[in-house]
Design goal:
Mean pLDDT of chain A: 82
Number of helices of chain A: 19
Largest sheet of chain A: none
Largest interface: A-D, 60 and 60 residues
Distance between the termini of chain A: 48 Å
Radius of gyration of chain A: 25 Å
Oligomer: homotetramer
Shape of chain A: elongated
Chain lengths: 373, 373, 373, 373
Amino acid sequence: MDEINYHDYLQLDKILNAQATESNKQNISAHDETLFIIIHQTYELWFKQLHHEADSIVEIMRKPSLNDNSPEVQTVVHRLNRMATILRVLIHQIDVLETMTPMDFLDFRDMLRPASGFQSWQFKMLEAKLGLKFEYRHGKEYYTSQLRTEHIDLIKKAETEQSFLQLVNIWLERMPFGPSPTTLRNVQDGAKARSREEGKSQAAKTEKDFFSAQNNAEIVWDFWNDYKKAYTNSLAEAEKDNLNVFDEVFFQQRESHYTFSAKANRAALFIMLYRGYPMLQAPFQLLNNLLEIDEQLSTWRHRHMNMVHRMIGTRIGTGGSSGKDYLKAAADKHYIFKEIAQLTSFLIERRKLPQLPKKIEEKLGFAGPGPLK
Amino acid sequence: MDEINYHDYLQLDKILNAQATESNKQNISAHDETLFIIIHQTYELWFKQLHHEADSIVEIMRKPSLNDNSPEVQTVVHRLNRMATILRVLIHQIDVLETMTPMDFLDFRDMLRPASGFQSWQFKMLEAKLGLKFEYRHGKEYYTSQLRTEHIDLIKKAETEQSFLQLVNIWLERMPFGPSPTTLRNVQDGAKARSREEGKSQAAKTEKDFFSAQNNAEIVWDFWNDYKKAYTNSLAEAEKDNLNVFDEVFFQQRESHYTFSAKANRAALFIMLYRGYPMLQAPFQLLNNLLEIDEQLSTWRHRHMNMVHRMIGTRIGTGGSSGKDYLKAAADKHYIFKEIAQLTSFLIERRKLPQLPKKIEEKLGFAGPGPLK
Amino acid sequence: MDEINYHDYLQLDKILNAQATESNKQNISAHDETLFIIIHQTYELWFKQLHHEADSIVEIMRKPSLNDNSPEVQTVVHRLNRMATILRVLIHQIDVLETMTPMDFLDFRDMLRPASGFQSWQFKMLEAKLGLKFEYRHGKEYYTSQLRTEHIDLIKKAETEQSFLQLVNIWLERMPFGPSPTTLRNVQDGAKARSREEGKSQAAKTEKDFFSAQNNAEIVWDFWNDYKKAYTNSLAEAEKDNLNVFDEVFFQQRESHYTFSAKANRAALFIMLYRGYPMLQAPFQLLNNLLEIDEQLSTWRHRHMNMVHRMIGTRIGTGGSSGKDYLKAAADKHYIFKEIAQLTSFLIERRKLPQLPKKIEEKLGFAGPGPLK
Amino acid sequence: MDEINYHDYLQLDKILNAQATESNKQNISAHDETLFIIIHQTYELWFKQLHHEADSIVEIMRKPSLNDNSPEVQTVVHRLNRMATILRVLIHQIDVLETMTPMDFLDFRDMLRPASGFQSWQFKMLEAKLGLKFEYRHGKEYYTSQLRTEHIDLIKKAETEQSFLQLVNIWLERMPFGPSPTTLRNVQDGAKARSREEGKSQAAKTEKDFFSAQNNAEIVWDFWNDYKKAYTNSLAEAEKDNLNVFDEVFFQQRESHYTFSAKANRAALFIMLYRGYPMLQAPFQLLNNLLEIDEQLSTWRHRHMNMVHRMIGTRIGTGGSSGKDYLKAAADKHYIFKEIAQLTSFLIERRKLPQLPKKIEEKLGFAGPGPLK
């Protein structure tokens, strides 16, 4: 086997010879065009890395038999954490681009038309892979209008495949913390009943303990009934309307534009509430890391928008649809994991949480401590 | 003189004994309340420091005889840079607050009502001092609704005094780069004429060289005429409407809700265009640092909004006016220095800039190099 | 109950009135002294927060019955992570201090003598609490020479109490992954034997499976024997000496200046190797977070040293013992968790790891998945 | 002219197809090798950008007629600032690499031998270009031992050409703030005399005002004599030895291993002391940015060392010369701009600075304000 050389291993002959400036071709002096090229190349390299991580966690989550006892969930958590760390570097890089003043950018900006936008198919495909649906994109088709056909196809393909968010939904639904379908129907009846006979707690009676669906006679427990009571008590007068949203989120068949089912929402909330139990730790970190990624993406979009505004003002696309306006609308809209974020509204104080039955507590713990100690 | 002791000098007996948690008073366990108090205290200490810097630069800019040959403008630049550096730390600190999960916050959140918002009079007063006018605040009076009278008075006072932005306007107006009032009138006539007789360049004839107003017969130069021509040529077909905005920004008496006069805008643009000349370097840095501060403030507001959303969802003020909505509207609106930012739209390529006459170039240079060398 | 007011709750009357500059007292102009005071106050506030976290995790780790099935280990992990996050902000703050140029510092530096060093008893006490022993401090007594008696006492007390590092040692020793004492003796004999009869693998025979010490006849397994073989195979020729260190670290009674026993080292290595198993995830994160904290502390000391050097050069204490030299020596020496860091040297490739017996694997997993699904 | 396409312009077909993992070739699973490749590629891209900036400022500084009235010095300042900004991103990137745990690295580490070090010829060449001399490199030839001949040649060439530091020395020497050679000789005599007849201030008499060398009879002023007196007064008893260093640094022909001449040191100190004057602002920023770059490089080396230690412990090169030891020694030694940093030791308080004569003050100011106002 040949010895490996750092320069060859990294294919630096390719990497370091991929910066051909337009200004050079046109024999015009524009010192900062090299920076413009190189920083975008680093962005694209990092996007490739983000895809490498995203693909790997999609693959793990796709396994029908994803095993909580394997390192797999932990691996997903770890890689999501890495993705957030990379996104922080990408945000930081904007500082470098901002050392290019508007006048410096003008030296070569017109030479790049129409390429001067941010037309990264990798980034758009990443959004799709994580869970941003086409119908929720600001500007719809606009975002692919200047891409090569082969790259549009890649994005479209990613949009039709199961996104990471959809896989998370399935994974959550598989968790044993939601009521069985029959119970669910009763709950829905109860929800309707509640609106008729407020205060009579009719709902309570119809809500069967979801664990009882496990055919475990010893554990009969109306968890969601108890929880809804506690949640109701926690609401201020002005917040009473939240109860309807509560029912909608956790007990009803939601409209198609939501990715998470009521069952998945219940599992996610349960994880947030009881994250202290060993079995829920990694799942909690997984959900939390998704929020972290969404926040970093949001900051990235926001800083990108501000940077573009500072760099080119309102000049491009003068007709009201300036670069900044498009970026702002996209930034406001493209929260990929907002369905997870909104669950925060339905938490209650830890000291008012329903106490889990002993039998269930045990199941959420480790097998080991007993015999091994 | 007594020896100075680190602990006493920093008054740590005060500082380190100012954390009394409500949870402790109510004998409830809430580990993270200490973090909540301490992080807000560090924010307030930094706000005090920002006021210290802001007051000092307001004082410098207020001098009618602010001398370009003194270190004063440089000092303003330096302190603005420090303020931006501090703001970066404040943004970074949000990372720490985000280690507090929603459930951890719920442990003590209700004990703080109605204080649980972000009611920093120092921050609001800082915005006012820098240049955010009351009438442009989102929610108007709302932002002072929970403050002590003495602090409301401080903010109101700051709102009536000359803001830093207003002082920058005056400083820019004082600069010798704009035409005299008589010339200005002609230019406005010319602007009107232009719209009547497009292409005849009537405006050119009436635009007297602004430097000629200096009674310097040798320098008669139609700078703004030349520049407008160059700018016109730089516009794409779809951008032609920008010309009207150009006239409005640089030659007309603008509506009262703008802080910068046309004269100040001309000086600011001139500085951006010819920042390479020694005399314009510090002024350019000053303007650039204001944009940097606005961007950091914007990022701060944005991350603060996201953090609040992640922490409490949509619970508080359920009636549509959640904490997040208020913060978002304020973040979208409160760009203090946007009048400077918009000037970017009127820049042109460096290689198409009108060449400055030798005599003017000399005046923008140093006195020294000649005889000292 | 009284309504809570933001300003009062944060005790801002205290906090914002604790900045009395010496320059003001002496009627000398020194604009940056306020920054000097305020930044140190923010440091001390954050140190107080670090103590709040450190105290809480020391308390948890002190429990003789620390339960792996409770959220407690996870809480320790989370708070260590927060400490690292805070340290990152503290490092970032140096950027702000560096906006003070040497000439700006000179405006007031001499007024502070002899307080001008960095005499934070909170920081020194924090080091002690985490595990820095007095005898390993650079300069020994020097670091307390200018402190108040009451604060020296606090540090000394922290030095005599069980440090977090010592508690981690005890916690690791309690873990069921090391051989029993009898086995250990045999191993030591084996180690001696090995050096006599190299290659005969006499050691292997005497190393009883540590799990067999659990009176579990089904699991008889020479884990450490297998591992040492695998490790030996992984060593390059020039690294063969590492084997002696291996024996010393994992099987011998180490000199008193080490905090970790051989038993604790074995448990820590086992955790690093098999971190994928659910029961080892939180312990792995705990160890990893300690390395992260050490690294942040190291960066903090390093940047602090560079900053002092840039600010005052070699002036103070001209006689060879400049501020910088002291800080450098301390930075080089004060790695609190280096005993954990060094274990990295003894890892081997994952694909060469001894496969854990089924029975043990099960014990490292969750109780739940079976019956609950 | 063809339309420009984002993907083609950035040559992404090259960039995104340059990641061939060894683990893949050997059909072994090593998820993190892709990260390892990509992060190093981004480092190398940034190094290329740093060279782009370094080359441009070397070119500017090489001009014999570098004009203080042109934007050139300002451009150098700006690009140094950009380099520091890039270095901050490079440091930040280490956070990403640290998400790769030691066990993850072991998955592919052995496949890379002997390339597993950090053998970036671009980085070494950059150090040389900035001013790190070969004879001050830790380990001398070692650093080139695994490079391709063509890259070694590039580094060697950079080492023989004038470094940026040498160009700064020449630029400083050209500044009109030092005494003429004749005066200098007298000063040296005076320095010797001083040690013989302490207190008689013989030196003072022989030190001719350096400005008088400009044949400007009106300005006869013993600046350095005055300054030495003020500096002497500022020294504490224990610091008196500093005076000898003062003479050595500012008035003697220094040993060959220093890059800065006494004359350059005088100019640099003068700039630091009187940075408030317009003509000295950009030069001050230039010197300050060099210190900033050195500090960022130092932090980079330090964090790199810690990261390597955390990743591989002491395994590689077990015989005492571990990777960490080499990196640590290099980090301690390779301060490229330390001759500038040490000048801080010779500053005095601003309020004790010798007042500059009116005539000189004028020369340090702008030409413009008079007639233009």
